């Protein structure tokens, strides 16, 4: 944590800039899109700082970087969601969840965690269903399935029962859960009813989730450094 912390300073500063400026969503602009995406850009730099060779040789890290790229594009689309770009943002984040799921991998399988995430995801969709109409009835179902699958793979990687968890696996797990909280808040606020302080909740959990998932990518690098020192 001590070795990675300083590399995240630009991310924390960019996040503070976003919350301090708190630009109104009623007047979208390229400047507001830049400010919103800036913390994610900093996470690109965080991963790139570990070296191109590291990203090329470790698929999980490169897939998380790709997920962050699609996330930034999704963020930009959502700036103009009132102008009809909400579905575009939804698509970008759906791709992000596919990339993160691939990065977390399918081992161990942990069907119990999968069943738990399936129940949680199904319950969320069952609640939202009566508020949905048109194409969102199906799009939201697919999206919830994808983010639920991503959450399953992150939780499965913890291996708590076998006492094999690491701080980076914990980061992935907590990050995935926060991402689900952020997206559920968006869904409730967009389709169901106004959520008090929704924007703050959405962005705070979103930035924290992306940071933790980016941190989870450095595990393989840390293992290599440990072997070299040994």
From TrEMBL:
Compartments, as annotated in UniProt: Membrane
Gene Ontology molecular-function annotations: alkenylglycerophosphocholine hydrolase activity
Presence of the UniProt keyword Cytoplasm in the record: no
Top-level taxon of origin: Eukaryota
Catalytic activity: a 1-O-(1Z-alkenyl)-sn-glycero-3-phosphoethanolamine + H2O = a 2,3-saturated aldehyde + sn-glycero-3-phosphoethanolamine; a 1-O-(1Z-alkenyl)-sn-glycero-3-phosphocholine + H2O = a 2,3-saturated aldehyde + sn-glycerol 3-phosphocholine
Main localization, broad class: membrane
Mode of membrane association: Multi-pass membrane protein
TM segment ranges: 30-49, 61-80, 86-106, 113-132, 138-155, 167-188, 200-218
Keywords for the protein's UniProt record, in alphabetical order: Membrane, Transmembrane, Transmembrane helix
InterPro entries documented for this protein: TMEM86B-like
EC numbers, comma separated: 3.3.2.2
A single cellular component GO annotation: membrane
Family classification: Belongs to the TMEM86 family.
Protein name, as recorded: lysoplasmalogenase
Protein's organism: Hippolais icterina
Gene: Tmem86a
